[in-house]
Amino acid sequence: MAQKPRIGVYICHCGTNIAATVDVKQVAEFAATLPGVVVARDYLYMCSDPGQGLIQRDIEEQELTRVVVASCSPRMHEPTFRGAGRQGGLNPYLVEMANIREQCSWVHSDRGQATEKAKWLVASVVAKSALLKPLEEREVDVTPGAVVVGGGIAGMTAALDVADAGFPVYLVEQSGRLGGRMADLNRTFPTLESVAKLMGPLIERVQTHSNITVLLNSQVTGVEGFVGNFEVTVSGEIPNLQVGAIIIATGYDIFDPHRKPELGYGQYPNVITSLEMEQRLAAKDLTGSGKAIKSVAFIQCVGSRDAQVGNEYCSRVCCMYTAKQSLQVKELLPDADVTVFYIDVRTFGKGAEEFYDEARATGVRYRRGNISEVIRHNGRVALIGEDTLLGRPFDFEADLVVLAVGMESRADAGDLSNLLKLARSSDGFFMELHPKLRPVDTAVDGVFLAGCCQGPKDIIDTVAQAKAAASSALIPLLRGVVPVISETA
User: Fold this and answer.
1) Is 439 contained in some domain?
2) How confident is the model at residue 357 (pLDDT cuts 50, 70, 90)?
3) Measuring CA to CA, how many Å separate 461 from each of 90, 189, 227, 316, 464?
4) Contact, 335 vs 357, CB < 8 A?
5) What interhelical angle do 318-332 and 352-361 show, nearest 10?
6) How far apart are CA 363 and CA 413, in angstroms?
């Protein structure tokens, strides 16, 4: 006959985080009446050394076979309390937590109702703990290698770092070339370096690296397994890939300005996007026809910070690439009138503010205003809007209008999200596990994020995140084993 569980329940005050809203002593008294509970206590900080010592002593003295700690999120201190259980001689998987901080005290103001809810949270976890079975950890070998999804600057950077560490990498790119969006650019900011000169050697390194297999015109169609042992299915006649880690670097989509018809894109040939401007600057022909240009206007935040199109976020690069393009216009046409219509100027990062100042010093004018419409007028285009500093309407004529289009999550991000069970934020980008502490991890162990698939960023931050993702992916690969939990016989 199975022995009845002997359960110890420990209610944490968490200073005043819990105790200010929940009557922890009343919850402890309630817990003592629950079936199987032989001891119930409350303590100021259960995660402290004395708090853990209390658990360890009770396991020995009260012969506890289960422990329930009612405190903060298991994500924060589950390893702490399982460690305390192990130190006391209890299988750590017989230690369970009830979250009465994030799920109770922090989201309620009524003390009586919060206390009642805490009681039922504790009661449910106590009932669950009675059914727990001891589990054991074991180690399994890691399959050496990684799949990197996306062949842009983020994907190539991550692939090279993993490959340079001595592991095979499969770089899966759905288009017919490497380089991603960056390959469509002319120069970088704030250094004005040639993109072609930067990308050429990088692409060559990837294509000739002995540890990298480049799979062009390919897509990931299936993923099975777990950290250290993934099986990835790729479209075409490619055998399934066995790897230990996956890095997602699928990039972004450019906002389609046809969704803002009032700005005249597609209606007037002299209204173009910033990406089209890159091509014209590379060709040193701003009109595409050789005609003279006297006035160029840039409209900022097209598709960003705009609730009407569903993108309330800042794309983080538009202010800087507009400063870059305006400098290039002044370099080509020193006498041209260049005006930037902006909501707010956001220049961050090393050398960014100085770069913006340089653009203004060359004669680029910045005018704070909202553009409501772009119309045809006397063979030119006229911008109709409001000066938001003066609170006055205005119209402004230009020979060329450049729409500073922002970034969006890829239209096919949902497909990959479903395959890998990856969470996405409200703006559609893949969601990191923690924005500050684990910015490249996902909720799926062994799957990491790099670049603009996680959110808008410039090349500098993209490369930094790609290197971080590669470093994180290398942890299980270098260890060679990963722990797994198996139920005891």
Assistant:
1) no
2) very high
3) 45, 12, 26, 11, 5
4) no
5) 40
6) 41
| Segment 20-67, tens digit of pLDDT | 999 999 999 999 999 999 999 999 999 999 999 999 999 999 999 999
Measure the CA–CA gap between 92 and 96, rounded to whole angstroms. 9
**Which domain does 15 fall in, by range?**
7-133
For the chain, the distance separating the N- and C-terminal CA atoms, rounded to the nearest angstrom, is 17
- Residue matched to tokens 């479209």: 235
- Residue pair 220/226 in contact by the 8 Å Cβ criterion: no
303: pLDDT strictly greater than 60: yes
Flag whether 111 is in a domain: yes
CATH number of the domain bearing residue 329: 3.50.50.60
Supply the pLDDT for residue 264.
Answer: 97
Instruction: Judge contact between 92 and 86, C-beta under 8 A.
Output: yes
Are 282 and 188 a contacting pair, CB within 8 Å? Answer: no
Write out pLDDT tens, residues 260-274.
999 999 999 999 999
Q: What is the pLDDT, as a whole number, of residue 290?
A: 64
Give the H/E segment covering residue 342: strand 337-342
Can you tell me the distance from the alpha carbon of 324 to that of 336, in angstroms, rounded to the nearest whole number? Answer: 15
Q: What is the pTM of this model?
A: 0.86
Beta carbons within 8 Å of 234's beta carbon, 6+ residues apart = 170, 172, 215, 218, 219, 220, 221, 240, 241
For residue 379, give both structure tokens.
């063979």
Q: Is the pLDDT of residue 489 over 50?
A: no
Same domain, 374 and 262: yes
Close Cβ partners of 161 (under 8 Å, ≥ 6 residues apart): 466, 467, 470, 471, 474
Mean pLDDT for the stretch of residues 327-351: 96
What is the amino acid identity at position 279?
A: Q
Q: Single out the residue of 106, 39, 111 nearest to residue 69, CA to CA.
A: 39
Q: Phi and psi of 470, rounded to 5°?
A: -65, -40
- On whether both 290 and 160 belong to a single domain, the answer is no
User: Is residue 201 domain-resident?
Assistant: yes
Separation of CA 466 from chain center: 12
Q: Would you state the torsion angle of the CA atoms of residues 276, 279, 280, 284, taken in this order, to the nearest 10 degrees?
A: 170
Torsion of CA 58, 64, 66, 71, to 10 degrees: -20
Distance CA 147, CA 316 (A): 28
Distance between CA atoms of residues 379 and 356, nearest Å: 31
What's the token pair of residue 45?
């900080």
